[in-house]
Fold each of these.
Amino acid sequence: MSSLGKQINTWIFDLDNTLYSADSGIFQQVHELMGKFVSSHLNIDVADAKIIQKKYYKQHGTTLRGMMDNHGVDPDHFLAEVHKLDYSIVGPNLKLNKELKKLNGRKIIYTNANMQHAINVLERIELSNFFDEIYDIKMANYIPKPEIAPYEQMINQFDINVKSAAMFDDIAKNLVPAKNVGFTSVWIDAGYENFSDDIQASKKYLDHETTNITKFLEDVNKGKI
Ligand SMILES: [Mg+2]
């Protein structure tokens, strides 16, 4: 069995909580803005909005999808509103960036967020223009991971050879379709429980697990993995 670094030539990364810790405040801001959006759009108080927000996230994969399906919300408007974030709290991980730059082949961002969010975060973590492609929720026709259709579309769109592609994500559930389409799956265990995740049911689809993506890539680059 050859090492991952030799086998893989397409590296697909989730963004939030995979390449940086969104848990340090970015997600909290998004959740708050979503709550405000739902509250003002449906004309209900913020507490009730939070319940709906959570319900849609669970039932539809994203709050956005629930708002689109049930209330005809314009997705671009929604996404622009909930990503009016203070990005100054996000900074680079230079050790991780060094390891990312050693990987041979194409690098792709695959995010359930929108393009502007990805661009803003990549600028803050000093990886602007590093990725060959950014596949965002709009390109995925607003169908979020872990539904399999956007994975298949991404493979076609970027002409990905699945046997030589690896996907990294902090949500184990998102790696089930990744594995099913033929990617090598790498779970970044960010050390917290995402209420929408199902780690137990996803376990057998995870080729690799790590709590530290920098260390993992360091080992890949050394040929240890
Ligand atoms: Mg993530």
Amino acid sequence: MQYHTPASFEDASKIAAKATGITRFLAGGTDVLVQLRADIVTPDTLIDIKHIDGVHDITRNSDGGWTIGVAVTGAEMTEHADLGGDWPGLVEAMDLVGSTQIQGRATLTGNLCNGSPAADSVPAMIAAGATVTVSGPNGTREVAAEDIATGPGRTSLAQGEIVTAVNIPPRAAGGGDAYLRFIPRTEMDIAVVGCGINLAVDGDTITAARVVLGAVAPTALLDQACADAIIGSTLDDAALEKLAAAASAACNPITDKRGTIEFRTKVAGVLARRVAKIAYERAQAGGAS
Ligand SMILES: Cc1cc2nc3c(=O)[nH]c(=O)nc-3n(C[C@H](O)[C@H](O)[C@H](O)COP(=O)(O)OP(=O)(O)OC[C@H]3O[C@@H](n4cnc5c(N)ncnc54)[C@H](O)[C@@H]3O)c2cc1C
């Protein structure tokens, strides 16, 4: 195995572009090293990206949006009060990843690029309208978070392409987000269903919403029918009923040891209702609660 510690994204991309066999970028390593030690994936080329300038930074941009470096850990996000003030749902989703030890290493970018359908931060990122900056041999492009994973363990990134930043839009006035997951025990488990919702209100009326379900399909699902169920409503019982029905209808899950198709389908509706209520309260309060 070849281990590289490039000092720039350009060098990292060049190494990845030339590499043969299996290549992995090493951010926190909480997926890569576990897969390596379990003989699931043994990379021929391991590119440690933690020595590149800026990768540990969380920056508020001039437009009020955020740039999150690709080596920023879950713990660093949780400790950043202003980021959590704008995007509590995103931060709480990342905070659910693993344990205190995992939180000290795991990154948003790694969670996204590992391609797990059950990745906790991914529904919240998509709900937030996050994009990632991708650099590679053919230049740089901005990719919506929902367009990165293409199936379990697979991404749309071409050989030599690397995510160089996660971009979170400005928090609009009257906006709020939330994320919840169901797991069979209280912590340290993989989501049976996850749900992230970001919405905006004008007075009591919901004017915009993005509803995303995790762990109920090969990739996280951004579902317009779920959004339509609550846009224009005051999140009354009828709207919540419609949302729950739309969430269950959107599911295309599998049965595994954590839950059956029927269970996941039911839980998706229950979680969507709960998450919508939290996001709505936060939107009305104008921030985190
Ligand atoms: C004990 C334990 C508990 C866990 N619990 C959870 C949980 O509750 N919820 C959950 O969602 N996950 C969980 N995970 C999985 C893991 O911690 C997360 O997916 C984590 O966010 C991965 O981030 P990382 O920085 O460690 O990624 P790494 O392991 O460094 O990388 C993961 C993947 O992303 C790619 N990658 C990394 N950086 C880039 C980049 N800049 N550009 C392109 N590709 C890149 C790598 O090539 C690799 O394929 C757990 C893992 C462990 C070991």
